[in-house]
Every structure is written in structure tokens, then in C-alpha cells.
Design a protein that fits this description.
The chain is α/β, with parallel strands linked by helices and 107 residues long. Helices cover 49% and strands 14% of the residues. The chain has helices at 10-19, 36-45, 61-70, 82-103, and strands at 25-28, 52-56, 72-77. Strands 1-2-3 form a 3-stranded parallel β-sheet, with helices on both faces. The longest helix has 22 residues, at 82-103. The chain is globular and about 35 Å long. It starts with 9 loop residues before the first helix and ends with a helix.
Amino acid sequence: GYKVIQAIDGGSARKFVHEHNITAAIIDHYMEPFGGLQFAHDIRLDGFDLPLLLVTSEETSDLLLEATQAGFIGFLKKPVEPARLVKAAERMLRLAHLQKKADSTLI
């Protein structure tokens, strides 16, 4: 299983990243006091390189492009079925593990 920490807004989510050993984050597009894209931008500026999934009711190409540029590695369209959420989280963690492994490989 996974240990899940639920944040009530973008500010508390950012605080959790600073205070806990967060492995990955599933972030809602619309959060207060700032949205998921701003959250991704801010934690990157803070020096954190977490794998991120964006949960949204939108699916415009502009949003997908912005989210990819902000560092999100996947997207979930609302409403999210629990089984789909678990599969997406597992895929995100696998990708993050492979990326870390690749980053540490020297030739």
C-alpha cells in the first residue's frame, strides 16, 4: 500500500512537500490559493523534483502543453475512478524510479 497525505489546498500541499519525504504528488488543477500549475512551478523553484500527476476536468491542448512544461508526467480526467487512480500512481512511481536510475547511470 501507499501512505497518502491529503492537503486541503495548494498552500498546505507545498508545506507538506517541505516538511515530509514526499515521493510523488497527485495535484488538482484548481486549488486555492493557487492552482496545480503554480504549485508545480513553485516546488520546482524550491528545489524539489517530484513526479506529478494533474487531475482536471479540462482537456484542452493548451492545458496539456502547460502542464507538460510545468513538469507533470501524467493527467487524470475527472471524475477519477479509484482503480484508475491507483494504476496512474503506480505508473508515475515506476517512471520516476526509471528516471532516477537513468540519471544515476554514467558512461
